[in-house]
């Protein structure tokens, strides 16, 4: 724990959750100067990283809107259905129910596969237990 004490102190300094009086008592000029320099550098570095991430993702989102114009129509259609202006067609409701039923069938087959594997494992355990007791 002691070897991470310096990095822990640096994180506490970033969050301003440390005892600055101790730093000021040790060195009256150098302590506050280095603390101010550290905080300014860290804030600017973290801020520039944060802004570059946001800027890059904003640019990617803008490019994607041009490639996929049907997203806007989907959002408008969903919004109108949500507020009740436009009702969903019957075939769309039926298609959604069919999709839910298909998912249930797939999960049932997965469950069957898992149960079969459990059964085979149990039979193998019983078989090997009988062989070890007979020897």
UniProtKB/TrEMBL annotation:
Membrane-related topology note: Multi-pass membrane protein
GO BP annotation list: detection of mechanical stimulus
Family annotation (Pfam families): PKD_channel
Subcellular location, record wording: Membrane
Protein family per UniProt: Belongs to the polycystin family.
Lineage: Eukaryota, Metazoa, Spiralia, Gnathifera, Rotifera
Protein name: Polycystin cation channel PKD1/PKD2 domain-containing protein
Start and end residues of each Polycystin cation channel PKD1/PKD2 domain: 5-59
Key words of the record: Membrane, Transmembrane, Transmembrane helix
GO molecular function: calcium channel activity
Any one cellular-component term (Gene Ontology): membrane
